[in-house]
Amino acid sequence: MNFDLGPDQRAAAAGAREFYRGSASAAAARAALDGGAVEPGHAALAGIGFLGITVPESAGGAGSSVLDLAVVAEQGGAVLAGPSLATAARAAVLLADHPGLAARLADGSARFAVLDGAVTGSAPSVDAAGATLFLGLDGGDLVVGEGEAEPGRPIDATRGLASVRLTSREVLAGDAGELWARARRVAAVVLAAEDLGAADRAVALAVDYAREREAFGRRIGSYQAVKHLLVDAWVGVDQLRSLVWWAAWAADAAPGELPLAAAAAKAYAAEAFERAAETCIQVHGGIGFTWEHDAHLYWRRAKVDRLLLGDAAEHLDAVARLAVAGALG
Amino acid sequence: MDFDDSPEEAAYRASVRARLAEHAGELVHAGHGEEAVDPGTHQAQFRHTQRVLAEAGLVGVTWPREYGGQGGTVVQQAIVAQELARARVPVLINHIGLGMCGPTVIAHGSQDQRDRYLSRLLRADDVWCQLFSEPASGSDLAALRTTAVRDGADWVVNGQKVWTTLAHVADLGILLARTDPDRPKHAGLTMFVVDLHAPGVTVRPLRQMVGSAGFNEVFFDDVRVPDAERLGEPGEGWRVALTTLMNERVAIGGAGGDLGVPVETLAAHARERLPALDAERQVLARQAVGRAVVAALAARYTGYRRFTVLSHGGLPGPEASAGKLAGTAAARLVADAGVRLLGDDAVYAATADGDDTWQRSQGYLPGLAIAGGTDQVLRNILGERVLGLPPEPRTDKTAPFAGGRR
């Protein structure tokens, strides 16, 4: 057994951290709420090759694994980056047999979004607000087309959520239910990886503050009431990391384990990230409840992500059904 | 990243499995739902089981060969543990000795002590216990009051220990005692090996809240312990005890084993019981099962991460406390889901056919959240040593122990 990242993955994570820290920030996520651009943005992600990490080399991608993508996505999550790499990962699965379109995903010449729900009027879908091509499931067919996106008023402006009505559609594959399900699971894992990075950052912000802030004559992190809140949030992040790595690894190395692992990771991510974000605000006190502080930007991301690609209740139900059906072995 | 055995590991696993099959008739086996066969009532069989396993090279896998161990790796140790569980061999009778006392003797004992004790411990010729907690010092272990006073070539021990697992069957124990009350509390302690059969030692089993008698109180009245049985230098007892406690937290939930009922057992239980619930209760029960499975898998895979670090030669750090904390929380969710699935039977101590798996697990968990570091003490350790948060101000670390504050 070797349940750890390899040296190449560590190097990729370090490179991604540097890129994302230089190109996105909680401040940009705040500005996006007032109409500013989502950072780093689609063009920058295409430029550095992150949209094609899991696209085959023959289609201009890196041909790397979902795990390789997940370690990068974690770094994007830490600075609330957008668009989501979950969208690229999901599209790459759906376009596996369409190298021409996959090449446009990887090089950024088309901006893809994947629609949840009906293609005649989708559910709010990630990164749909700025997309130029949409992938959807239409009566069992995988379709691609252009469409009209109608964004709602965002809680978290970095997710690019919009409902879409397709105005054109071309069938890419029939009987695509299984492919669709796999793509959604891979996307759930990558979203959980972004949540891992964001939750880790939210806990780190709160820990740093608790080490400095004084009340009643001593630093607040010394009070067990505060310390234990932080530890519980940190333990949640540490446990989430294990599920994210396992699920991302399973996506390529053990596809039979992916349904269980992806549902477990997404369910755990929803609650661990939410707890981290709530704890971050609580530990900061009044300053954490202000527009200027970054805490609410993590909170916003947590409140939205927990509902995307299936909420915790849906995934817990899936885990139970799979376990009862023998998925634990 | 991979979860498979290497070719060498697979070969080792096959040899372990073959050895267990060869000796199957000589081993205690837990039946389904009877994981906790009581070593108190089946002591001879338990000792014999460990002896057979030791002679087959399956005990003390990582211990040095010179002390009867196998000189193996932590990976081999884990493989043996997995195969013992698979063969439904219950926890070995000397698990306290193997997990805590033995490593402490290896680290701090004299050559003479290592020679005399370790191979006998491996074969369960001597069963060991850990004489640490006292009525007035549980989490605050360094406040203990049992005294050892030097008298010629001996030390004379007086006091009381409590919550001592296995003392009712043990032959030997490691004892932390106060040898210098004029020094600050942590600095006045010394560790000894004591003979539980010595004159003046009285063991009284304590009935636990779930009814069984797994731990004890132990009284020491003028018990003479030769100085040769001192473990480490006088006044160094706290440092020696930290070795024991670090090993304890790794032993409990450190490396991927489930605390409480295995999640696979919950899945099988749900498969059998879910259809008997009405539709609305099934929805709720699946939420409980799903939550329990996710928590247990998260704890298990986190254990695999820690284990990977250990298998590459890393040392167990304070993160091991997170394993016990999360493993305990997961075990609670697993037990709760298991109990809920019982439907109307959930209010009784056992089902009509006598199965008490879930009630026993539920009743055991309050103790798990206390033993080997309470959930609250573990959070303090994690907060201070992993997150770097400041400690609570303390007034008890520098003053002489006998100076009033205890």
Key words describing this protein structure:
heterodimer; A: 329 residues; alpha+beta; Butyryl-CoA Dehydrogenase, subunit A, domain 3; 4-stranded mixed β-sheet; two-stranded antiparallel ribbon; 8 strands; 10% strand; globular; B: Butyryl-CoA Dehydrogenase, subunit A, domain 2; 4-stranded antiparallel β-sheet; flavoprotein (chain A); AcylCoA_DH/oxidase_NM_dom_sf (chain A); Acyl-CoA dehydrogenase (chain A)
What average pLDDT do the residues of chain B reach?
92
Structural class of chain A: alpha+beta
β-strand percent of chain B reads 5-15%
CATH class of the largest domain in chain B, please?
Mainly Alpha
Count of discrete alpha- or pi-helical segments spanning 4 or more residues of chain B: 11
Shape call of chain A: globular
Report low-confidence residues of chain A grouped into runs of 5 or more: none
Description:
The complex is a heterodimer of chains A (329) and B (406). Chain A is an alpha+beta fold and 329 residues long. Chain A has a domain of 146 residues: Butyryl-CoA Dehydrogenase, subunit A, domain 3. Chain A has eleven helices and eight strands. Chain A has a four-stranded mixed beta sheet, with helices on one face. A two-stranded antiparallel ribbon of chain A has the order 4-5. In chain A, a hairpin with a 2-residue loop joins strand 7 and strand 8. In chain A, helix 9 runs antiparallel to helix 10 and helix 9 packs antiparallel against helix 11. Chain A is globular and about 65 Å long. Chain A starts with 6 loop residues before the first helix and ends in a 5-residue tail after the last helix. Chain B has three domains: 87 residues, no CATH class; 109 residues, Butyryl-CoA Dehydrogenase, subunit A, domain 2 (Beta Barrel); 135 residues, Butyryl-CoA Dehydrogenase, subunit A, domain 3. Chain B is 42% helix and 13% strand. A four-stranded mixed beta sheet of chain B has the order 1-4-5-8. In chain B, a hairpin with an 8-residue loop joins strand 6 and strand 7. The longest helix of chain B is centred in the C-terminal third of the chain and has 33 residues. The mean pLDDT of chain B is 92. Classes of the chains: A alpha+beta (329), B alpha+beta (406). Chains A and B meet through helix 7, strand 8, helix 8, helix 9 and helix 11 of A and helix 7, helix 8, helix 9 and helix 11 of B. Chain A: InterPro entries: AcylCo_DH-like_C, AcylCo_DH/oxidase_C, AcylCoA_DH/ox_N, AcylCoA_DH/ox_N_sf, AcylCoA_DH/oxidase_NM_dom_sf.
